[in-house]
Amino acid sequence: MLLRFIIGLSSVLLVTGLFNPLLPTLGDYLLTDQQVQKYFSVAGPSNLAIGTCNSVPFASAQAGFASSVGLAPTTTWREANILTNATIGMIDQGMDQLAAVCQARQQFVQTLGAAYDTCTDRFYLISLGNTDWWNVMQYTHLMKHLEFICSTGFDVYQSNIDCIRKGETTDGNQYRACFYKFNATVNANPNNFCGATETFIGCIKDFFDTECNLYVGWMQCELERIGFAYDCYGLSC
Ligand SMILES: *[C@@H]1O[C@H](CO)[C@@H](O)[C@H](O)[C@H]1NC(C)=O
Ligand SMILES: *[C@@H]1O[C@H](CO)[C@@H](O)[C@H](O)[C@H]1NC(C)=O
C-alpha cells in the first residue's frame, strides 16, 4: 500500500520531466500515459519472436544495478521512475559517478548475457503483467540510453561536460523549449508522431551544435534518436 503510494507519487513527480541532457527520461517528452501507450505499444516485425529471460538472473542483475545507484536491492524493474531518478542523481555528481553507473550497467549486461535483449524488451516486460506502458518504456529507455552514453557518449561527455550541463543550468530554458515544442506539435497533429519526433531531434541537434560543437550536437541528437528509432523508421541525425 505504502509502496504503491510512493510509486504513484514518483510517477507524478517525474511526469513533467527532469530535462537532464546527460540522460533523457520518458517524462521529458511530456506525453500522457495514453499517448505513451498509443505511440510505443505497436509491435514491429522484429518482435514476432521474443526470446527467454530467466527471472532468477534478471532479479539478481536488477538488484545489483539498483544497489549500485544507491537504492535498496529490492527495487525492481517495476519501479522505473525511481531507478531513473536515482541514476540521474548519480550521473549528475560527475564523471567518476557516471563511470560507476556504466560499470553497474556492464555488470547488469554480463549477468544477463544472451537474455539481455529479452529482459529489456518492452513487449516481454509488459507480458509479465502488473505494470503499464509508462513504466515499461521508462525502464527500457533507461537501459537503452545507458547503452549509448556508456559507449559512444562517454568520451564526448568527458570532454564537453561543462557545455552539455548548460542545457540544464544557464541555458535550460532553450533546451526545454525543444521538449515543449515537441509536446505542442504532437498534440496539434496526433497522427504525425514521427514527424514531430524528427523535428524534435533536429531541435536538440541545433541547440547543442551552438551550445558546444557539431560533434556534441550529433551525439545528443543520436541519444534522443535511439529512444524513438524502433517506432519511427528513417530518423537520422
Ligand atoms: C530523486 O533523487 C533525488 C536524489 O538525486 C532524491 O533526493 C529524491 O528523493 C528522488 N525522488 C524520487 C521520487 O525518487
Ligand atoms: C502539452 O500541450 C498541450 C496542448 O497544447 C497542453 O494542453 C499541455 O499543457 C502541454 N503539456 C505540458 C506539460 O506543457
From TrEMBL:
GO biological process: regulation of lipid storage; regulation of peptide transport
PANTHER family: CONJUGAL TRANSFER PROTEIN TRAN, PROTEIN CBG21698-RELATED
Official protein name in the record: DUF19 domain-containing protein
Gene from which the chain derives: nspg-6
